[in-house]
Design goal:
- By secondary structure, the chain is an alpha+beta fold.
- Helices cover about 35% and strands about 10% of the residues.
- The chain has 2 domains: about 140 residues, no CATH class; about 80 residues, no CATH class.
- The structure holds iron/sulfur cluster (2 copies).
- One iron/sulfur cluster (SF4) binds next to loops.
Amino acid sequence: MARSCDSSIDNRPRLSYDSAPLKTEVDQAGPATALVFNLKRDSPFSFKCQVCSVCCSNKAIRLGPYEALRLARSLKISTTKLYRTYAEEGATVLRNKPDGSCIFLNSRGCGVHPDRPLVCRLFPLGQLGHGQDSDKLGIMPLHPDCLGLVDTDGTVGSYLESQGAGAYFQYDQVYSAIYKRIRERLPCLQAADPEENRRGAFAPGGLLSPWLDIDAGVAAYGRRQKSEKPENPDELIRLHIQAMEDWIAGL
Ligand code: SF4
Ligand code: SF4
C-alpha cells in the first residue's frame, strides 16, 4: 500500500533533488534554456582554474547522498550532522554564509576540496539532469571576474577524470535510479504541487531522509537486521542500497 507523504513543508525557494534542470543554480547564468548541453566525453575542452574562489559565492550547491557522505567523512561527522549543520534545513543545498560565500570557503580556498560536491568538480562544465542524463554537459557562463582559461587542448573526458568525477557520476546514477523507484511508489511525490511535497519529504526526519541520509538509513536498517554498521564507505553504500531495496519492497 502506498504511504502518505510527510506533511512538514519547507517553503523556502530552494532546489530539491529532481526539480532543477541544472546541477548548479548559477546566479549569473541566466535561464537554463539559454545554455547548450551538447558536449560529449571526447569533445575538445580544457580549463585552467586560477583558484581565486570568486565562483564560490551565491550558489545553491545541491547535495546527493554520495556527496553528503564524502563531505561527512571529510569532516569526520555523520551524514545526519552534515545535513543539520551544513545544509539548508529542509533542503539538500549547502548553506551560504551571510555574505553569500559557501559555508566551506575559508581564507585558503575550499575547505573540503578533496571531497567537494560534483558541481564544484565539474565547473565550468554544468550537467543537465541526473543519472542517465549525466552525459548532457555544457559550458556554464563564467563569473565576470573569473580568471580561468577555457581552451581545447584536452577533452571533456580527461577534464572529468582530472577532477575525480567518476565515483560521483556512478553513485549519482545509482541513487537517481533508486529515487525514481521510490517516487513511483509514492503518489504524493507526483502530486499537483510536487515541489512543496518534495521539500518536506527531503527535510531531516522527512519521508525521503532514509534515502538522502546514508548514516541514518543504514543505522535504522542495522537495528532491524541486528547488524553492525560498516566503517568502509563502499561497504556502507552497499548496505544502504540494500536498505533502500528493502524499503521499496515494503512501500
Ligand atoms: S572564479 Fe574562475 S578562476 Fe576563480 S576559482 Fe572559480 S573557476 Fe577558478
Ligand atoms: S564546496 Fe568548496 S568548491 Fe564548492 S562552492 Fe563550497 S568552497 Fe567552493
